[in-house]
Phenylalanine--tRNA ligase alpha subunit
Amino acid sequence: MTDYNLTNNDKNVLIAMDELSSTTPEELAEKTSMKVETAMQSAFSLSENGLTEVTDVVTEIYSLTSEGRTYAEEGLPERQIMNCLSEPTYMDELKEKLSPKMVGIATGWLRRKNWANIEKGMVVPTGNSDIGEDEKAIANFKEEKHTLEEIGTDQNTINDLIKRKLLSKTEDKYRTVSITDEGRQLVKTGITIEEEITQITSQLLKSGDWKGKKFRPYNIQTPPKPVYGAKIHPYQRLIDQMRQIFLEMGFTEIKGDVVQSSFWNFDALFQPQDHPAREMQDTFHLDTKSELPEKYKEGIRDMHEHGGDLQSTGWGGKWSEDIAKRDVLRTHTTAVTIKYLTDNPNPPVKAFCIDRAYRRETIDPTHTPEFEQLEGVIMDENMSFANLLGCLEEFYHRMGFEDVRFRPGYFPYTEPSVEPEVYIEGLGWVELGGAGVFRKEVTEPLGIKQPVLAWGLGVSRVAMLKLGLKDLRELYQADIDWLRKSQVCQLKD
Ligand SMILES: N[C@@H](Cc1ccccc1)C(=O)O
């Protein structure tokens, strides 16, 4: 007979499996009075000897969405329409009977299913409206959740219902252990559980009782409990990495106020006072106001109204001091760099600011009202557009993005303007922010004489790409499991 070299635990598990035949880890643990991990460890080592089998089962489970539930009771919109459509009927009439929304949804499906046509604002039934697989499927939903077999329909119908957002899919994962014929055979031939010493005590040594006994071998296969060291949040780690790159490239880090006057956030950047970005729906406006800098306010006003002394027309109209005074939560960190340049007009200046900005965004997987930007400026004699592209390309290379390109962009304060993009396998070109050379309309009234290269890059986008996230909100959630398992560093292969 093969010598399996089984431990007592293994033997106990095998004997239990002989009775259970096939079971879950929890049931096995209960039966053997072991911990789930210990029982499973034996189950795995038995399976290596062909005595048991451990299988992971994944089942797809479907449930009705709330919309789906409503239709399961009341019928699909196209069915509800068909029920009050004995003859051609005006769409408006139907909208009165059912809701306009319902009619809107239904008409597309009526045509698709060839139940009715729309002719001159009328819904004309074709005479054919047999109950479809999709209707049967949702009507079959008695309980909350069902597998494909339980619903009793085909995968295509299910997929269509998911696309219609009437069903949602989740996966149910579980593990089973079963005994093999070989395992049963072994139990039949008899398994003896020998007493074995698991721990040497002083008692055993003194009494000499250990003599002739079997010692449990030290098992180096036992999986240890994972130990998670304390570490810096992955997002913070990436921010630090970006900061480090700019420091290494010779930049100075600067900080600025979160609350800025519209003057520094918009006007100083030659953003017209009727620019849509300044509207209530895009910007967080505060009740407070700030004094305008005496030294620059007239210059900025002249620039906005008629282009100052430049060969520029400005934006025309009247520039309002009152609008410029209104405080906002900074909508970009460009407010910080422009102020810094104004206070430090002597070249060379190489500064960056990596910090939070605020915009009224509806929260979704790629937008949050608070987000980080990586802002930077270079001011020096003879700085050119090519230097700007070179600098940004260098930054992205150092972040590990190999392919970088620039698409033309538009910002009121830069000319030329570009939007840097990096290439991501599987995603294509991903846009990462804006950059450009500050216009004379910006630099002139602030007393800045040299060309200024400027950029404002998205930080969270980079983090999503680097951390492989599909939803930006994950960056701000304390998902302890994700944090624990996040890698501190990656080894290159
Ligand atoms: N401020 C711009 C980015 C930008 C900064 C500097 C120059 C050009 C563009 C934004 O938030 O999108």
Q: What stands out?
A: Residues 372 and 460 are 6 Å apart (CA to CA). The mean pLDDT is 91. The domain at 236-485 is CATH 3.30.930.10 (BirA Bifunctional Protein; domain 2). The chain has three domains: 1-59+168-224, 63-167, 236-485.
